[in-house]
Amino acid sequence: MKPALKRGWRDLNTVQFGMTPAHALTLGPMDTATGSFLDLLNGTRGLELLREEGRRMELPDGHVDTLVRRLASAGLLDDAKGGGPAGDTLRGKKEALDRLRPDLASLSLTTSEPGEAISRLTARRSLRVQVRGAGRVGALVASLLSAAGVGEVDVRDIGRVDPWDVTPGGLPAEAIGDRRDEAARRTARHCAPDRPPRRTRHTRLGEESTGHSLVIIAPRDDVAVHAPSPSATEPLITSGTPHLYAGVVEATGMVGPLVLPGETPCAGCLHEGRTDRDPAWPRLVAQWRSGTARTRDVRPCDLTLATTVAGLTAAHALTFLDGRLPSSAGARWEVSLPALTWHARPVWAHPACPCGATEKGEGEHPSDEEESHETMAEHRPSKELRRKADAKRLAGTWRAHV
Ligand SMILES: [Zn+2]
């Protein structure tokens, strides 16, 4: 039984596994003898031994097999010896596995097959991720991914560590004055639960050009966060490299969109969509960008907001790296101080953008799009309120494109 789910009796015949709506389910009818038999499913006994225990507890013939089948099909069973040779290797490294135990338990809730959780965890070790930008957000994202078991986390940036780059979990105070990229790479390596595997030169599907499973774009420059330049990520689009945007701009944290080139909307789509809605957008962006070139001001970036954004960015990245599609595909999560209400702004695929995401059918049927985005974001709070707000905006009460 997956120990991650709390177990409780709803009544004399029904067991509830789990506490929260996202992952809880009930199983019944179940008699008390079978219920106490569940305690034996703790990974220490094989099926043969379990059948023996069942006979001893006077459970009917075949009952144990049926029960195990039912639990497995409900996604409630794990395999204590699963994960193949990579699983065995990780189990052999007790210290590394101990550090990752809560992460493994969490993966057991989002996977259904026995042994799948440890397979996902070990698969992270063979992944290469690049983080572009090593400020308060980027350096922490790199550390989090490394700590979560991603085998290779590369960081790109220029310049040297400024005092205001320092964050808990990100760049340390000792690194002030050091090269920013090197310091962030070093910090990320220190966070790894285990020595990363030696890099091998092999080409994986979709990694032909950069060799990265994912590139995270977390600029220190807040104009680049707010108005990401489509030309900066053109090589990623061309090479089909998935990338995820994140950052803080003027006390607003942003996570997304996650771009799967040719499939989900990209920075070009975002730019075209904003220009459609506001003809002044390109003019403003040009002014903001030229302003950035002239000044080297310290930009607003609240420590806790940056940390929050980094955490959510790493979580979206891991969901994708673990083989699922997070809600940042086709949307940008935003949160502003001081109210800190999260909401997702949809990013539509745009027909004028050369990335080809519209050809996937996403941008061609607004009604379908609306539906898919609503479904994707079903856990968002106050969906109804947002819908009303959107309708209001469409009626002509634009609050500028911020
Ligand atoms: Zn595009």
Question: Which descriptors apply to this entry?
Answer:
seven-stranded mixed beta sheet, 3 domains, Rossmann fold, elongated, TOMM leader peptide-binding protein, binds zinc ion, single chain, 15 helices, alpha/beta, 402 residues, Ubiquitin-activating_enz, three-stranded antiparallel beta sheet
Mean pLDDT: 86
Please name the CATH topology of the largest domain: Rossmann fold
Bound molecules: zinc ion
Oligomer: single chain
Task: Examine the secondary-structure arrangement and name the CATH architecture of the largest domain.
Answer: 3-Layer(aba) Sandwich
Number of contiguous helices: 15
Query: Any idea what the CATH superfamily of the largest domain is called?
Result: NAD(P)-binding Rossmann-like Domain
Number of domains: 3
Strand content: 5-15%
- The helix-strand sequence is EEEHHHHHHEHEHEHHEEHHHEEHH
The residue ranges in which pLDDT falls below 50 over 5 or more consecutive positions are 202-209, 362-402
**Cα-atom radius of gyration:** 24 Å
Helix content: 40-55%
Give a short account of the largest sheet.
Answer: 7 strands, mixed
CATH class of the largest domain: Alpha Beta
Structural class: alpha/beta
Distance linking N and C termini:
48 Å
The number of E-state strands comes to 10
- What is the approximate shape? elongated
Sheet with the most strands: spatial strand order? 5-4-6-7-8-9-10
Domain THIF-type NAD/FAD binding fold: 125-355
Organism: Streptomyces lanatus
InterPro entries: Bacteriocin_synth_cyclodeHase, ThiF_NAD_FAD-bd, Ubiquitin-activating_enz
Biased composition (Basic and acidic residues): 373-393
